[in-house]
């Protein structure tokens, strides 16, 4: 069931506190009494629907008897959760769902992006992104800000300890000359360069594969260190997140099927090179 998702930092911190409570064999009610909270407050905190302050986390850690390096690590995580990211200024121009997505991407350890019509946003060059936005009817005055935001999101792929990214792209998206032949050729060259990075895997769904499960629409699976995975689905007018385990499992199963249907990384890169050669002829 799609619903408004918890914040990325809240989910990460909450998952850590949940693991601590379970490790100590405490029920929600017993732990809440020990901390001095209501069971509802603790439940919301563990689910990421409420972000605890560093002071509150210190109280929880004291109640659970956590000391030493583990205590310092969790307090640092709590302080980080209180620090706004670059996408979270007080008068943010970014809509709440987009801020949520950027936050989840920043916290994810693995991202799986399935796209049918376009190159995934995390792999787009500025000119390609600009052409997509212009064709989507985004006001020209907003386009440059949105392009800059998209490029900012991509920084996670080159940071220390970057997330693993699996991009499954339909061949049709690679054949469509978004922005014209020159822009599309540069975009394809960019995909070739990215495919050489150890944390990025690109797989192409060839046209001759026929119908496949991704035709139902694009989606992104975000996985985290402790928090449960969730699925992002975005359209022109809406962004939704799915985090119920049975529904997430359906998307994971779809990716398993698409892995078998798609070309392996080396053949995918070879196909991209072939498309570049055809565009240059």
TrEMBL record:
Which is one GO molecular function term here? Answer: DNA binding
Under the heading Pfam families, the entry gives: DUF5753, HTH_31
**Entry-linked InterPro entries:** Cro/C1-type_HTH, DUF5753, Lambda_DNA-bd_dom_sf
The domain of life is Bacteria
Q: Where is the HTH cro/C1-type domain?
A: 17-66
Tell me what this protein is called: XRE family transcriptional regulator
Species name for this entry?
Actinomadura logoneensis
List the top taxonomic levels of the source: Bacteria, Bacillati, Actinomycetota, Actinomycetes, Streptosporangiales
